[in-house]
Amino acid sequence: MIIPVILCGGAGTRLWPASRADTPKPFLPLVDGVSTFAMTLSRVADRTLFAPPVVVASAAHRHLVEAAAAAVGTNTRLVLEPAPRDTAPAVAAAAAMVAAADPGATMLVLPADHLIRDGGAFAATIASASPAVERGRIVVFGIKPDRPATSYGYIAPGETLDNTTSAVARFVEKPDAAAAARLIAEGCLWNSGIFLMRSATAIAELDRYAGAIADAARTAVIGALDDGAVHLAAAPFLAAPRISFDYAVMEKTAVAAVIAARFDWSDLGTWSAVWEIARKDAAGNAAAGDAVLIDTRGSYVSTTRPKVGVVGLDDVVVVASDDAVLVTDRQHSDAVKALVTEIEAAPEAVIGDFVRHYRPWGHYQSLALGERHQVKRLVVVPGGRLSLQRHARRAEHWTVVEGVAEVTVGMTMASLAVKTLAVGESIHVPRGAVHRIANRGTVPLALIEVQTGDYLGEDDIERFEDDYGRTPA
Amino acid sequence: MIIPVILCGGAGTRLWPASRADTPKPFLPLVDGVSTFAMTLSRVADRTLFAPPVVVASAAHRHLVEAAAAAVGTNTRLVLEPAPRDTAPAVAAAAAMVAAADPGATMLVLPADHLIRDGGAFAATIASASPAVERGRIVVFGIKPDRPATSYGYIAPGETLDNTTSAVARFVEKPDAAAAARLIAEGCLWNSGIFLMRSATAIAELDRYAGAIADAARTAVIGALDDGAVHLAAAPFLAAPRISFDYAVMEKTAVAAVIAARFDWSDLGTWSAVWEIARKDAAGNAAAGDAVLIDTRGSYVSTTRPKVGVVGLDDVVVVASDDAVLVTDRQHSDAVKALVTEIEAAPEAVIGDFVRHYRPWGHYQSLALGERHQVKRLVVVPGGRLSLQRHARRAEHWTVVEGVAEVTVGMTMASLAVKTLAVGESIHVPRGAVHRIANRGTVPLALIEVQTGDYLGEDDIERFEDDYGRTPA
Predict the structure, then answer these.
(1) Topology of B357-465 in CATH?
(2) pLDDT digits (tens, 9 = 90+) for B346-386
(3) Which residue of A has its CA nearest to B353?
(4) Residue B212 touches partner A, C-beta closer than 8 Å
(5) Which CATH architecture has domain A2-260?
């Protein structure tokens, strides 16, 4: 029995504006309306081959993991990271947990954002790695390149170990196109990021090459809280360096082995890759959502909110969401990363930019803006609490639409009253009143805030208390 | 003194999604943030040449006209159409009004959606038409073509009348490209839709060739209400055939004359035309709103709501609004009309399509949608009133954000209570309650509606009374 360890990290900025902090790439319905995380759960659903998976995800995405697991009908062991630290700490934490129960157990590390359609070939390829794994190897699955891609790492196979497995001669980080072509000619494979190893091997190699990470993960597992999910202890876990398992272990270990995958594979790393695997019409267009295409060919058009009309263009990508729109040539879609870098470097607008703004307690977004009013949607994560605050120039009116709100309102500190509001219930916060919103529940709280006043800027705020240290000193 | 008659009709579907039923093309800030209507007012602001203008507009756009006129500082005589009937009825109504005060007055008919920057050349060209007008001619201003456009009417000049003016030999409706090239070679001009004539001439020619329109307009003017604006009487005005002044009169009359315009001119008929006149950066891009362009040239990008990122494309048009996004090649931008036709032919979505839906009382738009909630923005025109209605499966919570609402709510017909809500005030409408919203004021009423319930479709509605005849028989 193999224990799948599914890693849900990876922001996937190349799939902006669909992939975002609150709905990262593994949870997007990219493949015929299904997420790659759900497909990954299904891929390891055969309980004669695979134990229930360990899923490592950000605490902020717990509800996404649980909803998908429930939809697929899979039991998972959910391990929550207080914040992402790349794959080495995640693998280390999973290995520590798995080894505590069974040091001899075999772990299959799987990124949650890959597409593999041929489950039979996948299972067969994994099974073929077992002899090497039993001899203490860490087997990485290599993908036969179909182009000189510059966005993947390459693996050069070395000495033959058995009829499917070779030792790894070396790892080559993302090469330029010319180097990539040479590597392909030499028989190198892409590094899929899928690994099979015994948990004891993982721990031994982590201890040898990344002792700080191994220690941090072990301490975080020992100090974890379990409320149906394992919450890794924040202080030790966040002390682990942010580094990938490839860098931390694979490029150094003497036990690396590689097997060429016999399954199809895409990491859906760009919108072009998403277009490649999408269902297309006779004109080569893949469209999702409220889109109308006229005289358009070879294009990917997706919208979750605005109606999109595309006229007279070929080979474009148009992705529209509630706060952002991407328009690019399909061949340039890996340049989206540069776009996101530029966008993230820009200062936030003070008011009414309609963009989702992430805060320690959740996020907010302006839905509508007038001369003297603004409508916002606020989402507060379980356990999240906004600062105790006051606005000099606006009133606010809140209506709860998801979850349960604990609201504190009073015209003075002495008269603060606490109320609980359920879905459909409202409260008015007069101009100048002290107020606070908290989510004491286990599901996200969403509320609609209608602001009215003569100035609506984010800087009209006086903070009295804050869980996240944002009060002025 | 010339009386300008500014026609604000024209939906301008080619500028979708910016031009819409509630903000048609003349009122869009297309030229350095200024609307062509405001520029048209400024063009005739010299009171030594022009009397205060008569503005003919849809009653639904009164607030747009008045706001622009106030911003420019111009007095206007505002004539409101109950619904648009094309230019012949509009010119006929203006002529009837002008002639009633002064039968010898000269009218300058000006579409509100054209761009003319050279005010001096404009005034000089208009002045040069006076001799012909005084001899009873209707002078149309012709534009020297710079390309074989297929979207304009052409005018073939005939016999010379004076050193600037010719009789019109014939009008040619939108030709194909080959015919357009031949017309240009023959010295034909584009029909600008700008006319100069005495009001008595207009009335005589309308009576001769379009008697039904002349009669309808006269009756509508006689029956008009005046509350600071002239509200044309609906029954007679709407009986007028929907036809242009060109078709109804100019193509038939014996008094048509043409003068070649010595001013610059654009009808901003396509996004390409808007790009042509826009301020552009070194890469030839014109961008407005929250847009980031990377490796992009020769493009027009405008957004009033979502953040827009364009990567690796040349010569495209991207226009994003709160409910729709257009993406097209600049050279194909006149195909937008086909897109709008296709979009308008599609059935309305039942729920959560984020598109503005126009109703007799105003419009509504979904701002956010969840499993069991929806947020809408409703705008009620002055005098508008929604039906008295009830929903079986949702509660509604309203907060007024602009104007004043008269709300009627009760759990039974016998217990209905009427309340007046100002900005920032709210009311809860429980599931099953009978309710109604009215705008008794003179400015639009906007309110935010938060719906909660297990079914949110538009078809969950029971109507008891309706001003617009929408109650079931």
Answers:
(1) Jelly Rolls (2.60.120)
(2) 776 656 677 778 787 888 988 998 889 999 999 998 889 99
(3) A305
(4) no
(5) Alpha-Beta Complex (3.90)
